[in-house]
Specification:
Layout (H helix, E strand, L loop, with lengths): L20 E4 H7 L1 E8 L2 E10 L2 E6 L24 E2 L6 E2 L6 E3 L12 E4 L2 E4 L1
Antiparallel strand pairs: 1-9, 2-3, 3-4, 5-6, 6-7, 8-9
């Protein structure tokens, strides 16, 4: 994924325990992506998991420019070409494999990866 420090699910307030199943690979193949929402008191954490070219990619759903979620409507994180994640607030584009912003107001910054494992066709919190 990336050399950026990943967020472990044990550090997400209100999140699932490490080892919890987040989704199945079939869910991702069918839907393309899923959103993750966890709330503990006033703290809200939003993430997403994307199936792209046979890879499973997970990031915190927060643009490094303003902190807004990348998507506006449902689990749609890819641009029109289907090659890059795109922030629909200001149009920043990110390389899926590294989370690096390649264009837009946060160029050179990164999305924050989430720690996941794939076990028995399931995406599991790590």
């Amino acid at each position: 994924m990336t050399d950026q420090t990943s967020i472990s699910f044990k550090d997400i307030a209100g999140g699932p325990s490490v080892g919890a199943v987040l989704c199945t690979l079939q869910d991702l193949k069918d839907k393309g992506a899923i959103e993750l929402f966890y709330r503990a008191d006033s703290k809200l954490f939003i993430g997403f998991i994307q199936w792209l070219d046979g890879a499973v990619i997970a990031y915190k759903n927060s643009c490094p420019h303003t902190g807004t979620p990348l998507n506006l409507y449902g689990p749609q994180f890819l641009d029109a070409s289907g090659k890059y994640f795109q922030c629909y607030t200001h149009g920043a584009q990110f390389e899926p494999s590294s989370g690096l912003c390649i264009s837009g107001p946060c160029k050179g910054q990164h999305l924050t990866p989430l720690s996941i494992n794939i076990i028995d066709e399931k995406v599991v919190a790590a």
